Batch of 2 targets.
Target 1
Amino acid sequence: MNGTTKNLEGKAPVDGTDQRILQYLSTNARISFQEIAHGLGVSRATVHERVKRMVQSGVIKGYRTEIDWVKLGYPVVALVALQTEQGQQSYYVLEDLSRIQEVENAYLITGRFDCLVKLRAQNHEHLQHILFDQIGQIRGFRHAETMVVLSTPLENNFLSAFSD
């Protein structure tokens, strides 16, 4: 990487220092600007101004809490690839998915399937209930292929590509 990341419009919203700040924040959103500054060998004011600029430009969209889903009783993660009816029915699928509390993310995708859903369940019986009684009853639903996640050895790994 040449130290600058370009967006689709050709603008350079972040440089190498910004990328390293983003690494720190993505690992721990509560880290102090002083700790980041010390790790990067820059001033706290520099970190503050760069973070402020990235927030204003929309590069940083917000700060989130990382939840331990196992401790909350939802250890089962499944990815469900959905085929749907085409046309107006597709909107119903997304609307109905948004009402299922166990759905964490939904992605519109290309290929054999139309939508990829990440969901969390308490156990395999609960997963079956979600698949048959909720997802299977969605308007516009045609077919699903479910994959149960065994482990997650890499998660939120994108920014590690920018490490020194």
Target 2
Amino acid sequence: MFSYALLLIGVAAFVLNFPFGILRSRTRKYSLAWWSCIHLPILPLIFIRIIEGLTYKVIPYTLGISILGQLLGVRLGRWWFSS
């Protein structure tokens, strides 16, 4: 069954993580800034999940979408800043 709450959290996960992926491409690996770029977008997703009444079962879905947003953001950031 389709759920708009699931769509909302998926879009939010991607939109939040994409710019942080771009920022992460410009930071030194394993630094505090690099760590923050990975973990800061998780806090609003937890808040959205609680507000929408979604259970812990959507965490793998949001994690996958978040990783996709980070990876695409890093790729775009490397391409953008290399030229």
